[in-house]
Amino acid sequence: MLTAGRSFALSILIVLLGGRALADTVGPPPRPAAARSSARADTSRQVLVTFTDEREGRVPVGELTGAYRKRGEYSNSTWSERRAAELAEDYGLLQRAQWPITALGVHCVVYEVPATQSVDRLLHELGEDQRVESAQSMHSFHVMSDAAQGGSGDADPYLRMQAGLRSMRAEKVHRYATGRNVAIVVIDTGADDAHPELRGHVTSTESFVPASRDTASDIHGTAVSGIIAAAAGNGEGIVGIAPGANLRVMKACWQSGTRTPDAQCNTFTLALALNTAIDARPQIINMSLNGPVDPLLRRLIAKALSEGIIVVASEADTPGPDNEFPASIPGVIAVRTASERTSRSAHPKASVPAPGTEILTTVPHDAYGFMTGSSFAAAHVSGLIALLLELNPDLGGEQVGALLSASEMKTGAARVSCIDACDAVARLMERPGVCAPVHPHAGAAPGESARL
Fold this sequence. Notes:
Elements: E1 2-8, H1 12-16, H2 33-39, E2 46-52, H3 78-91, E3 94-101, E4 106-112, H4 119-128, E5 134-137, E6 140-143, H5 163-167, E7 183-188, E8 202-207, H6 219-229, E9 246-251, E10 253-255, E11 263-266, H7 267-280, E12 284-287, H8 295-306, E13 310-314, E14 333-337, E15 352-354, E16 359-363, E17 367-373, H9 374-391, H10 397-405, E18 408-411, E19 416-419, H11 421-429
Parallel strand pairs: 7-9, 7-12, 8-9, 12-13, 13-14, 14-15
Antiparallel strand pairs: 1-17, 2-4, 2-5, 3-4, 6-11, 10-11, 16-17, 18-19
Helix pairs in contact: 6-9, 7-8, 9-11
């Protein structure tokens, strides 16, 4: 879950504009009407149907357009297209999209159910059809935000303003690891890969959102990417938790407006991104989003985990049926914001506490902003895992989870639990001396986090 915080350009604009928030000065340009209408499309009467096609193992996934797919290097098989049309005719449905999910060996079709039919009854009938492998409703997922909370004119060097990085003691381990060459897929909105902090670190951006190819103006994905892998030592502003990592950004979510990081996704776009991510074989998939339990996405995430991919997901402050997924999936590393409001006892699954309040990070158009929410806490943990995987590429998800669980510390006057990146690296390296003790002024009691 995401809460947008203070955004500002951290430049001469602050002086000229009286310190106004970035949301008032530097916003993404309006998207074309087609993209806006697509983002607002009602999917409440859409269903996803899968069936087995023996040809799927030889048919790669298609590239999407406003009509969801076009022919090219990747295409659907003739057999699957006939089967999709056959089901549409038999049940009186309208085809809206289709593509092969190679990771699961099935073909998936999105149908729209006419208003004269009951969606629940249709799903029951499809579930009884021997031709159908699975049938489900289309679900929506969100990265949520609140209003901006004011601005700041702090003129200190940007690194000193990175409270999240410092509270994790991540800067202390960059002499040992930077996440060099660790591959991370960020499934999110798009990201501004031309940002000075991300140029060369975001190796590719792909869009799975119909009629929304623009990624450079997407706020949420740009912010998440900066936390993970903003460049080190380039004289620009901030440094990521894993500045040596390689990011591949897959746009499965679209912004709700032009000047807000609020964004939404659905089963269709997330399934496309996950299938492509699994084929890409990254070491980490970051999903800073949440929504209801989704059977198709659960299967895809389970497939990713079985392939040895570590999946990191943000957890809502108060998890419930409408927002517990995908963090609730066994094996997924769930991350909550380290704060007094998000204690471990409030969460049904053991989750990792990480910085997610007033986090300075990248936003589009060469700017920076403060962001708050578990979306950004998850990004910190993905970066930390990249550091661990550089040191030991053979680490599995369970080993990583154990290291993270053993590396929590208490910070601040309220004694809030937070992950200690330096402790995690020290444990992995079996070198207790790699981290200096936390000074009491930094929030830990004398000697409390020095037991390495």
